[in-house]
Specification:
The complex is a heterodimer of chains A (112) and B (113).
Chain A (H helix, E strand, L loop, with lengths): L2 E4 L4 E4 L4 E3 L1 E4 L5 E7 L5 E7 L5 E4 L2 E4 L9 E3 L8 E8 L6 E3 L3 E6 L1
Parallel strand pairs in A: 2-12
Antiparallel strand pairs in A: 1-4, 3-9, 5-6, 5-10, 7-8, 8-9, 10-11, 10-12
Chain B lengths: L3 E4 L2 E4 L5 E7 L5 E8 L3 E10 L2 E4 L7 E6 L2 E6 L8 E8 L7 E3 L3 E5 L1
Parallel strand pairs in B: 2-11
Antiparallel strand pairs in B: 1-3, 3-8, 4-5, 4-9, 5-6, 7-8, 9-10, 9-11
Chain lengths: 112, 113
């Protein structure tokens, strides 16, 4: 089947620390991979995406590389800010099904 | 104005009541989705619609029904609400392109007493 597994949170970091949130997936086809972010009280927003193996998605200092050999799409940021505090969701989508499969979400708390 | 809107934003109701959550979009997308979010469980798909005449069950459709009144409108109904349907509900839309990014509404927080 199709599924996404994320590291459990919450993750608590000090400002300017390095962030990694792990994400691995299982898919029956060739998925596109996404990271969404949910700020308190809001809906999900697309953070970045990658549509094929070895692609790197990036946005707002966040990066993730589509690794087919390890079926992973880990989210990284070199220096987090308090404003990055949110819940981060990894997701996959299969073109022929056009449905999304979401991970359980990882809450990030960044302290000043 | 927001591209995907949901009404109401918050709702408290009692067990056994019928509830309708509404979603409207101005993005012109054919595909619309309803998810529920529970702590620690992420988002789970309730129903999805690929066009006005196409309705499909998701992984947790029991106890829910939907109506696609137009391309821009997709409503979710709870015929007889129960407490374990207390959750945050999201509507989303997507285009039919290969990247198929989904765009989410702000959510409806539903509490069933």
């Amino acid at each position: 089947g199709n599924s996404v597994t994320q590291m459990e949170g919450p993750v608590t970091l000090s400002e300017e620390a390095f962030l990694t949130i792990n994400c691995t997936y299982t898919a029956t086809g060739y998925p596109s991979l996404f990271w969404y972010v949910q700020y308190p009280g809001e809906g999900l927003q697309l953070l970045l995406k990658a549509t094929k193996a070895d692609d790197k998605g990036s946005n707002k200092g966040f990066e993730a590389t589509y690794r087919k050999e390890t079926t992973s799409f880990h989210l990284e940021k070199g220096s987090v800010q308090v404003s990055d505090s949110a819940v981060y969701f990894c997701a996959l989508s299969l073109y022929n099904f056009n449905k999304f499969y979401f991970g359980s979400g990882t809450k990030l708390n960044v302290k000043p | 104005d927001a591209d995907v809107t949901q009404t109401p934003r918050n709702r408290i109701t009692k067990t056994g009541k019928r509830i309708m959550l509404e979603c409207s979009q101005t993005k012109g997308h054919d595909r619309m989705y309803w998810y529920r979010q529970d702590p620690g469980l992420g988002l789970r798909l309730i129903y999805y619609s690929f066009d006005v005449k196409d309705i499909n069950k998701g992984e947790i459709s029991d106890g829910y029904s939907v109506s696609r009144q137009a391309q821009a409108k997709f409503s979710l109904s709870l015929e007889s609400a129960i407490p374990n349907q207390t959750a945050l509900y999201f509507c989303a839309t997507s285009d039919t392109g290969v990247d198929n990014e989904q765009f989410f509404g702000p959510g409806t927080r539903l509490t069933v007493l």
